[in-house]
Amino acid sequence: MINSYRIALAGNPNTGKSTLFNALTGLRQHTGNWAGKTVSLAEGTVKHKDKTYQIIDLPGTYSLFSNSVDEEVARNYIVFEKPDVTLVVLDATSLERNLNLALQVLEMTRNVIVCINLIDEAEKKGININERILTRKLGVPVVKISARNKIGFPMLLDTIDRLVSGTIECNPVQTTYSEEIEEKITTIESKIRSLVGNSISSRWLALRLLDGDEALLNEFNRRLVLNDQVRREA
Amino acid sequence: MNMKELYSEAQAISSPQLRDDIVQQLYSRSRELCDVGVSYTKTKADTRTEKLDAIFTSKIWGFPIMLTMLGVVFYLTIAGANIPSSMLAEFFGWLENYITSAFQFLHAPDWLHGILVLGLYRGSTWVISVMLPPMAIFFPTFALLENYGYLPRVAFNMDRLFKFVGAHGKQSLTMAMGFGCNAAAVMSSRIIESPRERMLAILTNNFVPCNGRWGTLIVLASLFMAASFTGGFKSLVTTGVIVGIVLFGIVVTFFVSWALSKTLLKGVPTHYTLELPPYRRPKFFDTVIRSSLTKSWTVLVRAVKVAAPAAILTWVFANIHIGDTSILLHAVGFLDPFGKMLGLDGYIMLAFILGLPANEIVLPILLMGYLSTGSLTEVDSLVDLKQIFLDHGWTWVTALNVMLFSLLHYPCGTTLVNIYKETKSKKWTFLAFLIPTVLAILVPFIVYQTAKLFGWV
């Protein structure tokens, strides 16, 4: 379908992804104030201007290192299913801890919007967030919203619209690691690129291989086999 | 070169503390970003959450508060559901008269009236009038607690007990989901990282009564356990019995988790982080509407979908004769000796077997079984209901054992399918069936034999 895009919602548990999902799609996904409520993928659609967006609510995770099944589900979706935009939802009241997930997503995919939720609660607590500085430092749009009170939605939808139509571009600023790690990344990154091309971020894959992410290796091989089957049948 | 070779190559140059370095770097960058991007105008931090946590998760008050909350939720459900339940039952009974007249007017054959009205209509409306009111109260109340942020505190309080039996503290969250639906709770066990502890959570989830069993538990508790009380006090006693049953289910969960972690699923519980979110005032209206309308509705539709064919089937079984007895009675006669050993009877055993697709239909099937053999009384009120049970030789021990069997027996079909999907193992799915079944036979057996020994029945 032309003018139809897929938007994935990622973020720490209990940051209001499902609330945002419900508010955007008008659906009634079960919400709750506890970490780990969403375990499978929920989907819904929202129309804005001339475009249709399919919203996918990923399970909330603290990291994307495939420690548990839900982390794998979220990770696999972002990397292998390649949504047009990945919306990272962060809790404004505990931004420091939440940002680390956003940094991981920035390594995995290009089109990311950082969505700082619960902004009204943060302001009540006297927390002021300068989204322009964060935008510059991260290289991707940062938008402040309150999902439960529907604050900041026009801005969010416009940002999504401008990103998918190519008016703005994301240049996610990568985290630089220690010299030792960077050297190791360089050693295998070029080999990875010759294997997978540009389909997956070679830097991220290098990091995962160095980290010994066997679950990812298995997933990779599984998908390779599936692709072969599809090709042979065609 | 393929991915596997690359992986080995990367592993050869990697070091064990690489992950720590990566995580540390990510965190220090997060901190730098916050240093430049976030400013604070109020120096004094909000301490409301901390103050509340000091009470809700306190060593002294944590458990009493939890029990009270559980009791209050159940009391509201039981006391509030009473009147709407009987109103619905009366309404459906009144409507049935008109439907029957319509059938007579059209000169419809008796068997058609039997299948559609006595089977389908009675079965489904019974499910509706018994289940809808409790659900419409229980789900919103529970959802309010959930959206407020109380559930993680329960997990926090329970953590030490779970650790003690070798299970994972987050298991209490999957158990909380189980109050709604065991099938959904099995899926929610994905939040548990370690496969071993996740398996424990899956295998024991069934010991939390799901909403399909609420109806059975509440009806039997109020009919037989609180029979000699009246008014508000009656609801209170019923609540006490229900809380007792739920607590017994939790004790069994601990026991089975402990036994498994000493035998089939050996291991030490892993550490984990449990986030205690700030208490948030729930959007009252949204929460209530969403959970009572949407969730109750979906559960109800599912129940009626299963109840309708089961009701028809039961009616057919009760009315097709082989020799001079019906198929139903053949089955009942076959199961009766076994049921009697547990203080139950053949009808009850058959109802639980036919109720495998969904626990909601166990009681309706049981009633239809009883009614098909005697005169077809209309069940307009709970008093009639009790008379039917008494006519078939029920005592309070029968009621207690049915409740225990319902609490402990094998998971429903949907849950078993989900267990297979999540574990991808026939062996574990079979165990998830076997463990509860053995317990559901053992416990009522012991209760009944003890009661007989002491001459209580």
UniProtKB/TrEMBL annotation, chain B:
Nucleoside transporter/FeoB GTPase Gate domain span: 130-220, 301-425
Name under which the protein is recorded: Ferrous iron transporter B
Keywords: Membrane, Transmembrane, Transmembrane helix
Domain of life: Bacteria
PANTHER family noted in UniProt: FERROUS IRON TRANSPORT PROTEIN B
Transmembrane region(s): 60-83, 126-151, 172-192, 212-229, 236-260, 312-335, 347-373, 428-448
A GO cellular component annotation in the UniProt record: plasma membrane
